[in-house]
Amino acid sequence: MFKIVYNGCNMKRNTFYLLAGIVALAEVGIFWLSVELERPILIQVAFVLGVLLLYVARRRVEERLEDERTAMITEKAALRTLEVSWVVFFAISLGSAVVAFSRPLGLRPPHPPDPNVTHALIIRITEPDVLPFDLFGRFAIGQLVLLCLMIFLYVGFRMYYARKYGEWDRDEEQD
Amino acid sequence: MKNRIKVYRAMHDLTQEGLANELGVTRQTILAIEKGKYDPSLDLAFRIARFFGVTIEDIFLYGDTAERK
Known about the structure:
The complex is a heterodimer.
Chain A: H1 13-37, H2 40-59, H3 68-101, H4 117-126, H5 135-164
Helix pairs in contact in A: 1-2, 3-5
Chain B: E1 2-3, H1 5-11, H2 16-23, H3 27-34, H4 42-52, H5 56-59, E2 60-61, H6 64-68
Antiparallel strand pairs in B: 1-2
């Protein structure tokens, strides 16, 4: 009797890491392309697809990558990151709220006519064609900085707990 | 918590990798348990004990029990 066993397209651990590297490089390229074409949707969709691809690929790795110990390390690192991040996020949000509430709420009255408006227009015309670093831009950069902080914190905590729970220990079987 | 997994592994002529594969965990987890850096869940402790055909107390020595032995 023949027995058909569906093996899917399982992969080795190193193949998965190679795929992750290729995806990361592709994301950098698409980011550059997205900036060149001035189409943010490109990198946004590519990023989500890249993450989904890695999640699917991770489930197909033959060797066991996760068990209860690694799950515990991940949980502890995530919890510590959350504990620090919410304080930082809240502090920054409070600062933003103070800035927002220090001005009159609601619709602003129209600006009074500027006597130097003609002069200002001339200056604006002669300025180089660059995007102003407005409030929206500052918000995006601030969000990226906070996200990077979270990632750094998570990686740091993960390394700490991984070391604590013997992730990089060696013994006579490896020597 | 001390344990005698290494002894039982030697008795059954098993490597850490082999035991890890049998129990469905990573080799690093077996190593961490043997070195006392990680205490396994009750579920994994039972699976280890059943795999070797002994009771949990034969493998894991808790607190003062470990000192007496």
